[in-house]
């Protein structure tokens, strides 16, 4: 007797129910396997086994479905099984909040970065002389600030621009910092310079242009000295977090992330301060987050508003450049503050800073 549409549909409905039952049976077995693997500490995701099963599907397929369609369906089943086992196929990063829920606090000579208060890193773009750094440090001391920055190794876009005083510059920073009881933050560009820099710096800065210099990240991860990692010029937040992971996974968990603006089509500013990265980084990682208002805006008139925004949105540190005479500065002369501007900057941020005290 010829089958009617209705009887065929009934057959399909029955097959669908059988499939449903089989899928759930499979799911129950998957769960059991997951438990055994967990007790044995074996990775539950087994891509080799999955691949083998896809080969079996191919070898046994007699149609009418094409193999590719069936393999697609099986892949969906595999994925659903992984979800059932709540498997994170993505590794949980050491820097992530998931790994560590409490905030990391980086203690630099008594300054506890990440403790909920606002901290400041200030100093000239480049170290030019003892007197120049001293003048800035004096003003900082008057404001009760302790974290002194200055570039000794300068990553300049043009090879003809001032490249920094090198180790001489680090010595100047150390001298001034010791004279005033301060801590030194300075950029190191080459893994080979890290060992020597330990004699002079309290925080090793890794600059934007070196955010994905993996050998430098690994080297900074292998020493016991806090690191200040700046976001790359065109780095996504994800890439920034992975760069941080390089440092922490190499053994150094004393790390501060610094948003310093990213490259966009906007020309009104030197870079675009990605202010939303601050709460994202605070949410995704347990590390202190800094905002460099000098290099992000690249404009002196924006330093105060950007700093206010940074503090209001939850940044742990604000970084800005100060020079006794910006007009004659050997780098970044358009955006550094002079001492008077620095003092009024500090006055301007005070209402927000006091909210965190
Ligand atoms: C700096 O802070 O001295 C510097 C060079 O900044 P960036 O690496 O963010 O350009
Ligand atoms: Mn600069």
N-to-C order of helices and strands:
HHHEEEHEHEHEHEHEHEHHEH
User: Which stretches of 5+ consecutive residues score pLDDT under 50?
Assistant: none
Here the CATH topology of the largest domain equals TIM Barrel
- The chain-level mean pLDDT equals 95
> What percent of the residues sit in helical stretches (DSSP H or I)?
40-55%
Query: Which geometry do the CA atoms define?
Result: elongated
Strand portion = 5-15%
CATH class value of the largest domain: Alpha Beta
List the topology elements:
Blueprint: H1 5-40, H2 47-60, H3 67-84, E1 106-108, E2 111-113, E3 119-123, H4 130-142, E4 147-149, H5 167-180, E5 183-187, H6 194-197, E6 203-206, H7 214-221, E7 227-230, H8 237-249, E8 255-259, H9 277-284, E9 289-292, H10 293-297, H11 303-313, E10 317-321, H12 339-355
Parallel strand pairs: 3-4, 3-10, 4-5, 5-6, 6-7, 7-8, 8-9, 9-10
Antiparallel strand pairs: 1-2
The structure holds phosphoenolpyruvate and manganese (II) ion.
Residues 125, 151, 155, 187, 207-209, 230, 260, 292, 295 line the site of phosphoenolpyruvate.
